[in-house]
Amino acid sequence: MRTSRVVPLRRRMRVLLAVPMAATLTLSVPVSGQIAQERVDLSAVSRIRDEGLNHSQIPELAHHLTDVIGPRLTGSSGMKAANDWTAAMLRSWGLSGVAIEPWGRFGRGWENISYQGRILTPYSQVMPGQPSAWTGSTKGSVTAPVMVVEGGVDSIAKYGTKLRGAFVLITPPRATPPEFKEYERRTPLDSLFAPVHQRAGGQIGWDTLLVKIQKQQSHRDSLVIAAGVAGVISGSGSPYGTIRGGGDWAATNPDAQIPVPTVIIAQEQYNEMYRNVTSGVPVKVQLDVQNRFLSSDLNAYNTLGDIRGTDKPDEYVMIGAHLDSWHFGNGATDNAAGSIVMMEAMRILKTLNLQPRRTIRIALWSGEEEGIYGSRGWIRKHPEMVSKVSAYLNLDNGTGKIRGIWDQSNEKAVPIFEQLLWPFKDLGVVAVRRGNTGSTDHVSFDDAGIPGFNFIQDPIEYDLRTHHSSNDVYDHLMLDDLKQAAVVVAATAYELANRDEMFPRK
Ligand SMILES: [Zn+2]
């Protein structure tokens, strides 16, 4: 049993009874040797299930945030609309302390206004695409030859003035092979219980990392600008016409130069152009991409709201997800899914008038895609909260239903979550996994010493299709999965808020 590190609660009880004490102690018993009995309010749990599974507002919330508000790039007008709308919804449900709070100076916002692309030679075809975020606009409609830069951006200078006025392809073509590997949309039980082998991550601070990335990008931008090109065309790296990408964060800095127009097109079309140019077939493109930078307000904002606690109101259980998204689709699975699950969890608790002992606070962050800025900024802005937040629960792995939670290397978390999640086994919540998951907002809490956790979700087609891509839209949301997730989050937050003690820290 030592090998399999996570044992479902009911079997554990049997195990506890069957196996001599010494063995169980090492398994998952906290150092004190006793598994504290968690109080699970089953009547509240069943009311939460009924409200969340039979009277859900997930479809309406999903529709409005994706189909109506659309993409929410940090600093964009879509992000502002999302902050305003989420705050209005939380107020409409009767939450207190609802605020759209600046977490700090983010920089320039950016949004795309229009895009038209066409390959004119060797034959005429539409060139669907999207601009990379924080890049410049063409001077109206530009028709120019396409040229290839071999050896990557650092070798662009060796072309001298040859590239002036041309559209350039800088990265080599990428294969788009068929997907032979079976891709599990739902995680099989045994993989949920399989031990996790995690490489020890090198400890590099976020700020150091982000400054390093921005420096590299700024250097790259100046090389390309100096070459006098009309623009850069990149392949998306994903097959079947999917447009997937990111942005040029260096240009969020209002003092930075505006990068040349940079568009991402289907990998297949990119590879075709590359083959033609490198085999001497002239390629000409007509491109008109108009973007705008927004500098009137360089701050960025989180939406926050509370269900005030009864006898421990100055202690908090926080639930959250990032509200910002990329602009290639409208950020449905990343991360409108997590945002509406957290909103719905608050609506459920408020609708049922459940009164937690500690204050439950929802946080919808911005700046996550650029470096978990919103959650880190909030903690930096509120050092007084570090001792008051008992635990933080995050959701940011797509549209799949919750299957469990990571213990984030906090031994004491395992028996607590196993007992609190137990009532949802029939909904597929089965595992408390040992190990860390990173690069999303719970890390900000974990880094500050506050117990911060990210739920395990079924992958559905997150990595395969929707993550940061043009496919990331409402039609790829699994609404029943999100209803399940809202129920699990509402109940877990409520139970954690009612614990006698604060959540044990690492
Ligand atoms: Zn995300």
What does this structure look like?
The protein has about 500 residues and is α/β, with parallel strands linked by helices. The chain folds into 2 domains: about 10-105 and about 300-495, Aminopeptidase; about 110-195 and about 205-295, 3-Layer(bba) Sandwich (Glucose Oxidase, domain 1). The protein is built from 14 helices and 16 strands. The chain has helices spanning about 10-20, 20-30, 40-55, 60-70, 75-90, 190-195, 205-225, 265-280, 330-350, 375-380, 415-420, 440-445, 460-465, 480-495, and strands spanning about 95-105, 110-120, 125, 130, 140-150, 165-170, 230-235, 260-265, 285-295, 300-305, 310-320, 360-365, 390-395, 400-405, 430-435, 450-455. The strands form 2 sheets. An 8-stranded mixed β-sheet has the order 1-10-12-11-13-16-14-15. The chain has an 8-stranded mixed β-sheet with strand order 3-2-9-5-6-7-8-4, covered by helices on one side. Strand 14, helix 11 and strand 15 form a beta-alpha-beta unit. The protein is elongated and about 75 Å long. Zinc ion binds near residues 322 and 335. Zinc ion binds near residues 368 and 440.
What's the CATH architecture of the largest domain?
3-Layer(aba) Sandwich
Number of separate helices: 14
Stretches where pLDDT is under 50 for at least 5 consecutive residues are 1-23, 25-31
Q: What is the end-to-end distance?
A: 24 Å
